Amino acid sequence: MRADRTAAGPAEPRAVTARVAGRGGSRGEGAGANPPGVPRPAKRTARHPMTTRALPVADTGAFEVAKSTPGTGRPVPAHRGVRQEGHGVVAKARTGVRAMGAVLVVALGMALAGCSSTGGKRAEDARKAAASQGKSTVSTPRWTFAMVTHSGDGDTFWDIVQNGAREAAAKDNINFVYSHHDEAQQQAQLVDAAIDKEVDGIIVTLAKPAAMKSALERARKAGIPVITVNSGSAESKEFGALTHIGQDETVAGEAVGTELNERGRRSAVCVLHEQGNVGHEQRCAGAKKTFEGRMTNLYVDGTNMPDVQASIVSKLQADRDIDAVVTLGAPFADTAVKAKQDAGSKAEIDTFDLNEKVAAGLKSGDLGFAVDQQPYLQGYEAVDLLWLFKYNADVLGGGKPVLTGPQIVTKDQAAELEDYTKRGTR
Questions:
Q1: Which tens digits make up the pLDDT trace of 328-375?
Q2: What proportions of the chain, in percent to the nearest 5, are helix, strand and coil?
Q3: Measured at the alpha carbon of residue 102, what is the angle toward residues 123 and 90, in degrees to the nearest 5?
Q4: From the CA atom positions of the chain, what is the Rg in Å?
Q5: Which residues contact 381 (CB under 8 A, 6 or more apart)?
Q6: Is the peptide bond before 406 cis (omega within 30 degrees of 0)?
Q7: Residue 305: CATH number of its domain
Q8: 134 and 62 in contact (C-beta within 8 Å)?
Q9: Of 85, 105, 132, the domain-final residue
Q10: Is 49 a domain residue?
Q11: CA geometry: angle at 49 spanning 57 and 82, to 5°?
Q12: Is 387 inside a domain boundary?
């Protein structure tokens, strides 16, 4: 849900190496010896002839080496899990009954092992080079995915979502088309337009789900897969979406209430900048549920920042007991800080969502904490999961939302995330 999968920093990928091992053996001579003077028969070495052939592995850029006996065409079953991904090779080996079979397998294992130390790096370098040139790293058709959100103009939160979506689109050979409107009816019309253009997949937010229901029904009837992101987790499955990617807004609000308790706050105001947005209501309701002090809602016009600032100033001046202000989006946190200064208040300013300005505010102490829902991941996973569904009928979540938050970020964690917020990915 807009506000404005989690650790303080990104997990480093683990390197995985695989070994190709062959089991060899030879059959020795019998224990019995020939009688004296009787020549020993010439020993026959019955080699088990083997050939290799390449078996394509769908869209991984890899191939398998399997053995078969000439004249049969039947591949020998391979040991599971023996994979050398650095070179895109899955090596499968079975030994014959003679030592020569073992030698062949060992030779294959040595050949693969000899290049394993650099193969993964070369593959990763190739992927990065392709991405930097706008090239995909897959061989699937160039599908078109449309993302339609409830964002207003100039909302930096959705810039981060788009950064993630476009990164995944470049990797997956997707033509990514983005549109938005903060009025629900116009957003629904944008979804209808995407359906009329016969796009291959739709990513949509459900900030005002009732207005979007008929549009998603049209997509279902047209056979266009839909994934919902950010807002609308409760309605996503009912409306026929494959899955929902985002945070549980009620749970996120409850985390805020708990954090305010730990900070000793007694009176808080929750600033809602988009009336009718069900996710925003859920956030404030969740915070009120767990907060042990007094919490009130303040509705403002999020499209008019001077009005937002004036409304917060007025609220703080009218109630000097307020010691915490919670905004529901990163762009509104800085405005709340200015309002606090204008009102001469000592209230702590906290916010949902993270961006470069919020990270700087956390470091300087102007902000107390932020709730991160990882918008980059929402955009990236939405495109990637649509691609996986189109390519392999894969669906994540098991009928439940795929959660990307919440994560409470304070001054300490903000320093660790600074590089990522500056480049627009956190």
A1: 999 999 999 999 999 999 999 999 999 999 999 999 999 999 999 999
A2: 40, 20, 40
A3: 25
A4: 30
A5: 164, 168, 245, 402, 404
A6: yes
A7: 3.40.50.2300
A8: no
A9: 132
A10: no
A11: 35
A12: no
